[in-house]
# Entry
Amino acid sequence: MAVCQVTGSKTTRGNNVPKSNQKTKRTIKNSTANRTFFSKILGLGVSLKCTKRASDIIIRAGGIDCYVINEKSSCLMNDIKILKKRMEKAIIKKNISNLTPEQIQFM
# Structure
């Protein structure tokens, strides 16, 4: 099943409706792909199964680091929550807790 790890979007159900208005059931699959985002805090690539829309959200936020740190934990999916905890531990270990997300983006 194609589930986005960032937004949680799944396949949806709908109807094919021709001119005769004879509806038939169908499933609408979202196009997910494995994409790798480089995390400057962790120093490695993070591979996520996400949609194009989720990928654009991450890029617009300024990268995977800025997206994960600035987003509320209640809005994140389980895989991203685990990633956020790893990033918080790495921030404490590297002693860069006083940096703003913009400064992290240009590290």
User: Anything to note?
Assistant: The mean pLDDT is 88. The helical segments are 52-61, 64-70, 78-94, 101-105. The longest strand covers residues 33-39.
